[in-house]
Design goal:
The protein is mostly helical and 216 residues long. The chain contains 8 helices and no strands.
Length: 216
């Protein structure tokens, strides 16, 4: 499926002009059309840095989990997505600010297709894939957030910010339950409940703002 997505994307030449003026390579600054060899070299160096950074990140997460006494999966489910998705998000933000909407959309859709097809397949194939209770809960929360988003889009025919805000509240369920179970402190319910309440208020404020905008 992912290979088919890549082939269809490469064949689509309609948005090729949207790339606009490209910046010079770091390895060949000031040159409008860099050589293919340097382009490939910079790409390989970037990939090597990403892989190396991933090894450092996962090792750090394991050490932190051991020190604070939390399951490694729970901490990785909270920290790893932030570390991996923030660069993708910033890339899209930069491209949108430059008026390169198709690049921003391609960045998001490509990342989602890659992470939902090839990555899980490799993980299932190369690991024992023994799902813990926390892993199953994470899967249920993820599917619930996705289902809510899809249903709201089908009903309203538009994807609004408040929908994503409400769906994001499920992100805090796993750490809340894990911390309560680990430290036997009920006040974590109040802490995460307060965070979820703030997000819900933000969603309601967004809905009100959208209504005011439409009435103008």
């Amino acid at each position: 499926m992912y290979i088919g997505f890549v082939v269809l994307t490469i064949r689509d030449k309609a948005e090729a002009a949207d790339a606009g003026d490209l910046k010079s390579l770091y390895l060949q600054p000031g040159v409008g059309e860099p050589s293919f060899g340097l382009v490939s070299l910079q790409l390989l160096v970037s990939l090597a840095l990403i892989v190396g950074g991933a090894h450092i990140l996962t090792g750090g997460v394991e050490q932190i989990a051991l020190q604070i006494g939390l399951p490694t999966f729970v901490l990785s489910a909270l920290i790893i997505p932030l570390a991996t998705e923030l660069p993708e998000t910033l890339n899209s933000v930069v491209w949108i600010r430059q008026g390169k909407d198709s690049l921003a959309l391609g960045n998001v859709t490509g990342a989602m297709v890659f992470q939902s097809t090839l990555v899980p397949a490799l993980g299932i194939w190369m690991t024992p894939w023994n799902l813990t209770a926390e892993a199953r809960l994470t899967a249920v929360l993820t599917f619930s957030a996705a289902l809510f988003t899809v249903v709201m889009y089908r009903v309203r025919r538009v994807l609004e910010p408040w929908t994503l805000l409400i769906a994001s509240t499920l992100y805090f369920v796993l750490p809340m339950l894990t911390l309560v179970k680990r430290f036997h402190q009920a006040h974590y319910y109040w802490i995460f409940g307060g965070v979820i309440a703030i997000i819900v208020v933000m969603a309601l404020f967004t809905v009100q703002k959208l209504r005011q905008t439409r009435l103008r």
